[in-house]
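ok trying again, last paste got cut off:
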Amino acid sequence: MSQDNLIKFECTVCHKINYRSTKNKKKIKERLELKKYCPHCKKHTIHKETK
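nice, full thing came through this time. structure:
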């Protein structure tokens, strides 16, 4: 994975970084929000993109 396209997802409940992914920053300008499973909270929560 290229470092300039790499993004991190942080849980909105416990604020732990659980997931990493890539995105095309030229096409998608806004930050992503996905509903994913958090192993620390042990439930599905909203994960927001961080810097």
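cool. The chain has one domain: 3-50. Residues 3-50 form a domain with the Rubrerythrin, domain 2 fold (CATH 2.20.28.120).
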